[in-house]
Write a structure and sequence with these properties.
The structure is a single chain. This protein has a three-stranded antiparallel beta sheet. It is mainly alpha-helical. The protein folds into two domains: 97 residues, no CATH class; 97 residues, Orthogonal Bundle (Arc Repressor Mutant, subunit A), CATH 1.10.10.10.
Length: 215
């Protein structure tokens, strides 16, 4: 299984072009998100997090980097100037409004535009696998457990979904192999079943991952 690798660095001109694209996109889709009472920074943050050089930054690091580029190109009142291109309601009226909202969104938005939770968790499992103590040390099982662990960390205090057929496509294996990995993970104490799925309703079973069992 191979995941597409992207360039993991970005210079100032590339970042500024990306910031400009978020303003253009916001203008094109303003009416859509205004009616859903969505934060003006929601889509920009999802777009910025698409780039691997930005996606793993913490809120403070991202604010410092983005703020510096905005100040260089938009002047002293840069958060308001930037937000004015995003927010037709005009709710960002001062620098503090912009900074707080950007930090809040960066902390809340886990997935970049076009991403799904399982794909993100798999990428993290490849790059930063957990140490897993189990007698079933097959590569696919270790990757499955690490992926489930990252999925739980990303979703916090919520159940995780582990659809066999969708996971089988990503793992390049049969859905029975994924089903077996799930059963092993339950037996080994990694997964706690919470809600049984329904094949007819095409609803995946829900679990909680015991993060105390991995390091």
């Amino acid at each position: 299984m191979r995941l597409r690798k992207q360039k993991k660095s970005m210079n100032d001109s590339e970042l500024w072009e990306l910031l400009q694209s978020t303003m253009e996109s916001a203008k094109d889709n303003a009416e859509d998100w205004v009616h859903r009472f969505r934060s003006p920074f929601f889509e920009p943050v999802r777009t910025l997090k698409c780039h691997p050089a930005l996606r793993h930054l913490g809120p403070a690091e991202a604010k410092q980097l983005v703020g510096r580029l905005l100040q260089e190109n938009l002047g002293e009142n840069y958060w308001v100037e930037y937000a004015s291109g995003l927010d037709p309601r005009g709710e960002i009226t001062c620098a503090e409004d912009g900074e707080v909202e950007f930090l809040r969104r960066w902390d809340k938005v886990i997935y970049a535009a076009g991403e799904d939770p399982v794909t993100v968790a798999m990428e993290k499992a490849h790059e930063h696998p957990f140490q897993i103590l189990t007698p079933r040390s097959t590569p696919i099982y270790l990757l499955f457990v690490s992926t489930a662990a990252w999925l739980q960390r990303d979703l916090g205090d919520r159940n995780i979904l582990l659809p066999c057929r969708a996971l089988a496509q990503r793992f390049s294996c049969s859905h029975m192999t994924i089903w077996t990995c799930i059963q092993w993970a339950v037996h080994d104490g990694f997964l706690d079943p919470r809600e049984k799925g329904n094949l007819n309703g095409r609803r995946a079973s829900q679990f909680r991952f015991n993060l105390s069992k991995v390091t």
